[in-house]
Specification:
The protein is α/β, with parallel strands linked by helices and about 140 residues long. Helix content is about 30%, strand content about 25%.
Length: about 140
């Protein structure tokens, strides 16, 4: 069953996502970053080129020729069979097909517009018995 981690209180959700993605990469985990729009995918792509500042997180688009061999992929779909370890959800909605991943990461900002939908997703997961962990960020 998918384990779900909520990271609450992010000052900058994309910066937080990059930090967490870097940590998963260091643990040799394969990550699919769900970015439902081209603009969001481009933003996270740019950030991953310069974070962490002292390293590099190898990544590419989900539809790139080397996606199957790349540890971190960014895409607007969860249909990639090569990546089923960690899903980082950058959407404010419930990602359809999340349950095929071992772990789901939800990052929640400080504003109510972000926290409200996150509460609904948390409730959805909890009511279906998914193991949940909440982490308060001290950024």
């Amino acid at each position: 069953m998918t384990s779900i981690d909520f990271y609450h209180g992010a000052n900058d959700k994309l910066q937080t996502a990059c930090r967490l993605i870097g940590e998963f990469h260091a643990q040799k985990r394969k990550v699919l970053v769900y970015a439902p729009t081209d603009a969001l995918a481009a933003q996270i792509d740019r950030l991953l080129w310069c974070q962490p500042a002292t390293g590099f997180t190898p990544h590419c688009a989900l539809d790139a020729p080397l996606a199957a061999e790349t540890p971190v992929v960014i895409g607007a779909t969860l249909d990639d069979e090569a990546h089923h370890d960690v899903l980082v959800n950058l959407d404010g909605e419930l990602p359809q097909g999340f349950s095929r991943f071992e772990r789901l990461i939800e990052i929640v900002g400080k504003d109510e517009a972000d926290r409200g939908p996150a509460r609904e997703r948390y409730k959805f997961y909890r009511d279906r018995g998914y193991p949940l962990q909440a982490h308060q960020l001290g950024e």
